[in-house]
Amino acid sequence: MRGKVGLVVVALGLGLAGPVWADDVGAQIDAARTTYGKGDALHTLSALQAAVDLLQGHLSDQFAKTMPPPPAGWEAGAASSVALDSIGGGLTVSRAYTKGDSTLNASLVIDNPSVEATVTMFRNSTQLTAQPGWSRVKVGADDAILRFDASSRAGEISILVGERALLQIEGTDINKDDVLLDAAKGWNVAALRKLLGP
Predict the structure, then answer these.
(1) Separation CA 62–CA 11 (nearest Å)
(2) Is residue 151 over pLDDT 80?
(3) 99 contacts 73 by C-beta, under 8 angstroms
């Protein structure tokens, strides 16, 4: 629960709330403060969980809006999100795209230890070159790493935003790495940076 309460504090600190949303979360936090003062731990927990659920939904919606639109000729599914409390904390938002038998799976991982592991690969050229098939590329102004296997018609591309967010797109049954690059250019990285805050 400690991590979830932290989510409440961090999200409020980012100033992401609109008036109605802020009122809903604030009401739950006020309720938790009241019941806590009365020594009612169960109702305090329920109120805090309700606040977390509201924050989770709001943040997921906002981060989903930064994901790439479907490339020309592709169809996109609905975005979904999962809290990563059981594996180090943070949040992931994902979205699938299809074109016939071809698939792209985009995911955004925020504030999870897996992001820290990728930071090392981005910074350490030796570690990157030790991974077969990986190369450095640019997606707009952002650094990215790309892997594509023509024999299996599969690959992936990753963009690191600061040290908190990892953007990934995995593709299967695709003809060339340009499919990954073009899809990755659809990320609204500027909006994502604004959501992440300083």
Answers:
(1) 12
(2) yes
(3) yes
Residue given tokens 């985009």 in the structure block: 106
Report helix, strand or coil for 81. Answer: strand
**Per-residue pLDDT tens digits for 171-181:** 999 999 999 99
Report the distance separating Cα 111 and Cα 6, nearest Å.
12
Sign of torsion over alpha carbons 85, 87, 89, 94: negative
Q: By the 8 A CB rule, do 165 and 110 touch?
A: yes
Kindly provide the residue ranges of all beta strands, DSSP E only, lying in 18-85, ordered along the sequence.
Answer: 75-76, 80-83
Residue 30 tokens, joined:
């006020």
Q: How far apart are CA 168 and CA 130, in angstroms?
A: 20
pLDDT in tens, 61-87: 889 999 999 999 999 999 988 877 767
* Residue 71 near residue 112 (C-beta atoms within 8 A): no
- Kindly tell me the burial class for residue 46, based on how many C-beta atoms sit within 10 Å of its own C-beta (0-12, 13-18, 19 or more): middle
Annotation: CATH topology of 69-196: Protein Transport Mog1p; Chain A (3.40.1000)
The two structure tokens encoding residue 108: 């955004």
Please check the confidence at residue 3 and state whether its pLDDT lies above 60: no
Find where tokens 């639109």 sit: 69
Average pLDDT, the chain: 83
- The domain segmentation of the chain, as residue ranges, is 2-63, 69-196
